[in-house]
Amino acid sequence: MEDLPEALLGEIIKRLPTTSDLNSISLVSKRLYTVEAELRDAIYVGCGVSPVTVALASLCSRFQNLCKVEFNYFGWMPNHGMQLDNQGLHVFSSCCPSLTDLTLSFCSYIDDSGLGFLSCFKQLISLRLKALQEITSAGLLSVAVGCKSLSALCLLSCKNVGSVEWLEYLGKIGSLEELVVEDSQNNRNLRSISLMLTPQHCEGCVFRTPLTDNSLKALALSCPMLQSVELTFFGCVPEYPEIGFTQKGLEMLIQSCPIRDLALGDADIFDDEGMKALSSARFLESLKLVSCIAITDAGMHHLARSPSLINLTLELCDGLTDDGVAEVVRARKLESLTIEKCPRISLQAVQGAAKTVHYTDDCPGFKEWVERCVYGPTLYDHQSF
Q: What residue stretches are annotated with the F-box domain (predicted)?
């Protein structure tokens, strides 16, 4: 065993399916022990590990490449020994710098103070919290602020999580790409969500955004009071299926919730049929479309029948012309109309079209386009008429 090439030892270790097998083979030789420690990137900690703080320090010292760790105390009883608590989480945060994926389930002794230590995991991407009865919205807000790389959050049966400031913060910074919230106190009161979505590696060689039709269905069911939705896609191209949900999924969300404000940026899947669905959205008052290249004047013809629309913003929509805008203007009494960098829409077509009109026709350079994606449209001055 000592003479085998390290690559072969690595292959042997990778083919062992269970933790007990890995623990057993590491006792066969010092080389296997060393190689297994280098390759181990995930561990599971349950009721049998006690004292957990001491064990964690030892485990992290041995397995220095840990990326994924799960703590699960389902079925725990006092005679099992101490659970992971705030202090244990503090120790863990200082000795596992490469952690990207963390699950905390049925951890009765972790509260908002403990969640504050998660900001020490600078590379944390995925966080699952299940049945943590002591945590509140304040703790989740500290996670949202401190964990800059967080893109996936699963929150299950955390009964004391009330307000949604943490979720609104995650939406504003644009890093959150996957969200699951079930059986928590007040997610049904969520009224606003804003997400920036980028393609991620999913299956095989496919890259797509993690948000799917099922995600949108879950959002509609769990957040029936949702009124404001902003979805911005970054790095997606029309030629590839990089947007993870379909137009039907988006239409379902729009028709299931009382959405008053909708903003879509670089949504290549959204076309004239999608605009037809918007025409029956009876609560929709404000619509913003940025670089939605599949929408044409035919879509604006449908939008003209939208019963409540009073605010319309169009930016970088090359498929729209004066004729399409004129249809909406004739049918709706708009409070505000904003046209930015739509080369086929003229100033003459929008003058007097609403109580407030903003119009610019200069096309952005590459630097300006990048700044717009990162910082939003607030950097730009508007011409008012």
A: 1-47
